[in-house]
Design goal:
Helices cover 0% and strands 48% of the residues. By secondary structure, it is mainly β. The strands form 2 sheets. The protein has a 6-stranded mixed β-sheet with strand order 2-10-9-4-5-6, with no helix packed on it. 37% of the residues are buried.
């Protein structure tokens, strides 16, 4: 089991940037794919991005392609989400999760071990 703690959320104006971090504990982190999800008020949780265990494969929702970048540092057992050109519609609670399949492929991944979330608010 992997324990996850997100940080880095905050309030920014449209066009600004934030970098989210997800610190993990547990020796199996390096074998897990990691993902970011978000949930806006009144909406279902949605996939944002994922990265394979070795960082060699990344996946993005169409809504964030070209603006968000996922990365991981296995030595620091941390995964990041760099968010640029933020829009008001990016406002949500962002969660990270771990996928024991190791690959994070949308439709195949089995995300579990959710963090508590970090709030991102983008004002126009």
């Amino acid at each position: 089991q992997v324990q996850l703690v997100e940080s880095g959320g905050g309030s920014v104006q449209a066009g600004g940037s934030l970098r989210l971090s997800c610190a993990a504990s547990g020796r199996t982190f390096r074998s897990y794919a990691m993902g970011w999800f978000r949930q806006a008020p009144g909406k279902e949780r949605e996939f944002v991005s994922a990265i394979s265990w070795n960082g060699g494969s990344t996946y993005y929702a169409d809504s964030v392609k070209g603006r968000f970048t996922i990365s991981r540092d296995n030595a620091k057992i941390t995964v990041y989400l760099q968010m640029n050109s933020l829009k008001p519609e990016d406002t949500a609670v962002y969660y990270c999760a771990a996928d024991p399949t190791g690959w994070g492929r949308p439709g195949e991944a089995k995300f579990e071990s959710w963090g508590q979330g970090t709030q991102v608010t983008v004002s126009s």
